[in-house]
Amino acid sequence: MKYSEAINKALEIILKNNQNSFIIGLGVPDPSGIFGTTFGLQKKFGKNRVMDSPTSENALTGICIGAAAGGMLPIMTHHRVEFVLLALEQIFNQASKWNFIFDKKEMPLIIRLIIGRGWGQGPQHSQALHSIFSHFPGLQVYVPTFPNDIYDLLIKSSKIKKPSIFFEHRWLYNIKQDRKIKSSKCDGKPRIIKKGKDLTLVTLSYATIQAMQVVKTLENNGLSIEHIDLISTRPIHYTKIINSVKKTKKIVLIDIGWIPVSISSEIIAYLNDKLEFKIKSLRIGNEDHPTPASPTLAKKYYPSIFSMTKKILKFLNVDYKSLGEDKNSIVDKPDESFTGPF
User: Fold this and answer.
1) Which domain CATH number covers 122?
2) pTM surpassing 0.90?
3) Same-domain pairing of 196 and 316
């Protein structure tokens, strides 16, 4: 089951089980179905529950917040995270605070935001921005990597009566997991992908997929890596991370955005506040400037599997010269099946 198919199946279940739910967003009923995530749902549930929208993001968000306040379950989708920037006041100042201001009044709202690089998306259409949304109490912010996890979390979010934000990296849509979708019992807490004793490696979203290949190279160099998939950035559940760092005394965090004022920064600060010993840490992310549209420039902007491996080996004082040169990094598409930004 692909990541996109897991989303599609979860949305179908939500629509079937909750008659007050509906999906809305630019391109939702298009033939491509937003990378296949909404494909066929309008045919099954009708135009009144699976619908297109004009390019009026602020108005659309206001409609969805009003519908949620009235007891419905809107599922709002944006092709790119940047489109929702026009509606941040309504999300940050209204939806996130609704439960607090109005004495636990419900605000069942799911917002799906597509992020990630590819096909010359450039500085305005390839950002992550999950750290900004994670700043606000009242929001649940998820960055799931695997099909079973996003399946579980979408269904879970349809029942908690609070705003949930999903950041979906466009390069994950073709990621496959088990043949049939099944519950992983994901509750948003970090998952230990692999246990180890030399280094704690915390990643999220597509960086987790990259890191799985990094771990193989590191272990070929005699290192034992404990790899943790973060899954949620609001709240961040620290128990597994703390237990791992107590064991390894070292942590590397690989993010999908910029390093300054990031999720990785927050985790390092929290660990330094809570732990009684000083930890050795390294943060890896995009270069600290807007995203270039040129593939040649993008190759130096995004961390590759090679560059991440090299940085971690250097961080651990392990010889990295045997790695050679990075000649095969793909920066503009994940594989040959990727046919465009939509």
Assistant:
1) 3.40.50.970
2) yes
3) yes
